[in-house]
Design brief:
five-stranded antiparallel beta sheet, mainly beta, 7% helix, 243 residues
């Protein structure tokens, strides 16, 4: 394919919690005119951003409540991207002098979590906005002893990221037309740089002959906007004639 036109889009996903902000809209100062007698396609070449979307959110699932000798304390984990190890270390730090009396770890072969609770301590997972679902525990109170989660851990409910673009409409998601031009899951751990380069250009037909603007947005597999918490998102596309 010849005469490819590169389209590079970069924006800061404004951090305005609890709004999701992975949306970009831009009006071109000069419309891009396409030959109405030809067919054009758009292909995504690369994605650059950071794995910043949180799995623990303030007011959603960030409470950890425990008792010491009957005295209740509620800890609040800051919004962020956590794994089981960082959940445990954060709770340990927040517990201060009581740390090491409650220890959270992972049972890797079972994909479950384990909580060790020492004498005179309990963990209360019945409170609203508790962290229990992330750890795989049902709503209940855990007493002294070792407890294995009821379910596998639900450390990340984002299974895939969908790049949506209003210049296309003939992609299919679950059998229905969709503006999704590409889907992927980050090739980096939480907090690290995402550099996703597609091995080949897959062109999808553009749905207009005059391009006055472009709108892009990123969703998860449930069509929910993903919150990148203010990080910069850079996408590189190619526009070209297709047969």
């Amino acid at each position: 394919m010849s005469n490819l036109i590169p389209l590079i889009v970069s924006w800061d996903s404004i951090y305005e919690p609890p709004k999701n902000t992975a949306i970009y809209e831009n009006i071109f100062p000069t419309p891009l005119m396409l030959d109405p007698y030809k067919t054009y396609g758009l292909a995504l070449e690369s994605i650059n951003t950071y794995y910043s979307f949180p799995n623990i959110r303030d007011g959603v699932n960030n409470k950890f409540t425990y008792t010491k000798s009957g005295v209740e304390t509620t800890l609040y984990l800051p919004t962020g991207c956590y794994d089981i190890t960082t959940i445990n270390s954060t709770i340990q730090n927040l517990m201060g002098a009581d740390s090491n009396n409650i220890v959270i770890s992972t049972i890797v072969p079972q994909l479950k979590s384990q909580i060790l609770i020492k004498a005179n301590f309990t963990v209360d997972f019945t409170k609203p906005n508790s962290i229990n679902n992330i750890l795989g525990f049902n709503s209940k109170i855990l007493n002294t002893g070792t407890h294995i989660s009821d379910e596998i851990v639900n450390i990340n409910n984002t299974n895939s990221l969908f790049i949506n673009c209003d210049l296309i409409s003939e992609s299919y998601v679950n059998g229905s037309f969709s503006p999704v031009i590409y889907s992927f899951f980050p090739n980096a751990p939480p907090g690290h740089k995402i550099v996703q380069e597609l091995p080949r250009l897959n062109f999808i037909r553009v749905n207009k002959n005059q391009i006055n603007s472009i709108k892009l947005w990123i969703t998860n597999q449930d069509n929910e906007l993903v919150d990148f918490r203010g990080e910069t998102i850079t996408l590189r596309f190619y526009l070209g004639e297709i047969v």
